[in-house]
Amino acid sequence: MNPGFFVRNVPIYGDLILSPMAGFSDIPFRLICWEFGMAMSYTEVISMDGVLWKNKKTFKLLDFLPIERPVTFQILGNDEDKIVEACRILEQLGPDIIDVNMGCSVSDIAGKGAGAGLLKDPVKIGRIFKKLTKTLRVPVTGKIRLGWDDKSRNYLEVARILEDNGASLIAVHGRTRSQFFYGKADWNAIAEVRQAVKIPVIGNGDVRCVADIERIRKHTGCDGVMIGRGAIGHPWIFQHKDRDQVAPAEKIELIRRHLSLMLEHYGRDIGVILFRKHATKYIMGMPDATELRPHLVTCNSPDEIIDRIVSHFDRIQKQEAA
Ligand SMILES: Cc1cc2nc3c(=O)[nH]c(=O)nc-3n(C[C@H](O)[C@H](O)[C@H](O)COP(=O)(O)O)c2cc1C
Question: Widest CA span of the chain, in angstroms?
Fold first, then answer.
């Protein structure tokens, strides 16, 4: 199999990528997505200060499995020197790529000039990338939004600055910061970025079903497709399968496996609590899912989660057969 594209010298086999998603794209979920065909891994975002202060929780988020490679660490920060210092520490942990988050919309972060807040200062982005790409041995990439708000959509300027200062790839979430996660992602803008730079461009935003994968590829010409919310509760999208193409037995089998990976990774009590939000997404689109959801979010044991889901599936199948 030939690589779909390269991130500088790192070959990427395939072109479907799970979005970095804090609270979701952890080792258990990435492993499942990888088994289903994900081409490369992004860890959940970590902060520059967390690295510099040697915060244990920050470093835990950077754990990855050797089979996940190529693996990208994603960092948030607003200070040029500190972000470089933090990335030098990160590089020693062995990622294949380091990505700078320029899309985080959370007020506490973006309001302080990190994440999407960086988009307000493209010149600073240039300085950060120049320093990072001169200092680090691994390729450095950026994940951007289209701008701060509708009046300041500066994605083309930012994309050119990134390329001119050594970035090896740009992932574009087709929304502005002020859109947060609402409204339609603008795939035309992603297509413009694709035209404006020579480095690989990953298209992101509103890929919810298998047909969307081909649509965004055709519409934007992007080298890779990044899938966020469309993969939560539906990692089969990496196998080019839609929700209605997954048999109930297959769904239950994966729910069991995902839960057991969570228990292994986080321990029993935290694993159950953290799995609840995945469980509510696995049942999305099923008949009477809204009835089951409140029960799932209060389950306290692995068996309870599985029993609730299995009996719900059984009841639906009996109803359908009657
Ligand atoms: C719960 C959640 C957590 C997210 N965390 C991150 C993150 O850590 N880093 C990042 O670059 N983007 C993050 N995002 C944004 C996604 O990576 C993606 O850009 C966005 O959801 C749009 O893609 P989608 O329409 O396929 O969901 C997050 C999104 C969600 C919903």
Answer: 67
Query: Residue whose CA is closest, atom 2 of ligand 1?
Result: 21
CA 157 – ligand 1 centroid, Å = 22
Name the nearest CA neighbour of 61 among 33, 37, 84, 41: 41
Q: Where are the beta strands (DSSP E) in 77-166?
A: 97-102, 140-144
The owner of tokens 């493209």 is 122
Per-residue confidence at 61, pLDDT binned at 50, 70, 90? very high
Give the distance from CA 40 to its chain's centroid.
Answer: 10
Nearest CA to ligand 1 atom 6: 21
Q: What is the DSSP letter of 78?
A: S
Q: Which residues are catalytic?
A: 104
Non-local (6+) Cβ contacts of 261 within 8 A are 27, 28, 31, 32
Res 287: pLDDT = 87
The model carries a pTM of: 0.97
Kindly provide the residue ranges of all beta strands, DSSP E only, lying in the chain, ordered along the sequence: 5-7, 10-12, 16-18, 41-42, 46-47, 71-76, 97-102, 140-144, 170-173, 201-204, 224-227
Ligand 1 lined by 103 (C-beta under 6 Å): yes
Query: Which helix H or strand E contains 180, and what residues bound it?
Result: none
